[in-house]
């Protein structure tokens, strides 16, 4: 739901991207350390 517009924009502009499933491990090890926030959407 939250990524639909962002994904469509990236596709439209031809920009490369990788979708990563946000498991608890990804959330704790990547999302929180890089953003400093603990809520979704990021």
Quaternary state, please? single chain
- Major β-sheet profile: none
Task: Note the overall shape.
Answer: elongated
Share in β-strands? under 5%
Order of helices and strands: HH
Number of beta-strand segments? 0
CA radius of gyration is 12 Å
How many helices? The count is 2
Helix-strand category: mainly alpha
- Helix fraction by DSSP (H/I, runs of at least 4): 40-55%
First and last CA, distance: 13 Å
Mean pLDDT across the residues is: 88
Organism: Paraglaciecola psychrophila 170
Keywords: Transferase
GO molecular function, one term: transferase activity
Protein name: Glutathione S-transferase
Summarize the structure.
With 42 residues, this protein is an all-alpha fold.
How would you characterize this protein structure?
The chain has 42 residues and is an all-alpha fold. The protein has one domain. It has two helices and no strands. The protein is elongated and about 30 Å long. The mean pLDDT is 88. This is Glutathione S-transferase.
What descriptive keywords fit this protein?
52% helix, mainly alpha, transferase activity, transferase, 42 residues
Set down the secondary structure blueprint.
Elements lengths: L3 H10 L10 H12 L7
Protein name: Glutathione S-transferase
Organism: Paraglaciecola psychrophila 170
GO molecular function, one term: transferase activity
């Amino acid at each position: 739901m939250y990524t639909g517009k962002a994904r469509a924009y990236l596709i439209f502009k031809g920009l490369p991207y990788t979708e990563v499933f946000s498991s608890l491990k990804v959330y704790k090890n990547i999302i929180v350390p890089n953003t400093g926030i603990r809520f979704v959407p990021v």
